[in-house]
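Note to self: user wants both folds in one dump. Writing first protein now.
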Amino acid sequence: MDNESLQSRLDEVEKKLVLLLKGQAAIQTVHDGAILRANARTTALTSIVRELCGRVGLPGEEFAHHLEVRTSFYHDQLLQAIRAQNPNIAGRVDNRNLDEVSTVKQFPPLFADDGEEPED
């Protein structure tokens, strides 16, 4: 191949690379927007539930504890589902330390059914 042919092929590859990078940037923008929206929804729901708990007399610290336990529980459940499908992906996205891994098999109820205090 002569230099002109090589340069022509290099130019084509560079154009394709630019298109791929633009596409990747567009996908990342959509992804970032979805993450932002999900975080906003989570924050809104958390504030609503915190307000409802306050109205029925559940202390903010207790609500925060339950939220943390359940977040850890569901995070672990989702990672286990991913791990069942593709352990490599689960390994890449699971950045928890060992002490952060949920050991809860079932989280305690927020409100006890019989008027007793919820157990931890």
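First done. Writing the second protein, which came from a different request thread.
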Amino acid sequence: MDGIKRNFNKLRSEWRYVNRVMGPHWERFFRHPDSHAYVNLFVEARRASPYLFGHIDAVLYPCLLVAFAYVIW
């Protein structure tokens, strides 16, 4: 159980860090909502915390693939 709690705390601290770092990028997006500012949100978030987004992607992508396969078949 200690490992799960430690991993959760690591992900939570990474989430807080990403929220702090992404402030200027969100401000730019809301001031000038062009395609570059939109893409920059994803790029800079992953650059700030590859660990966090690696975990999110590891869960999200398989779910999207299953949902996509369900819709097609």
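Dump finished. Worth passing along: Residues 2-72 form one domain.
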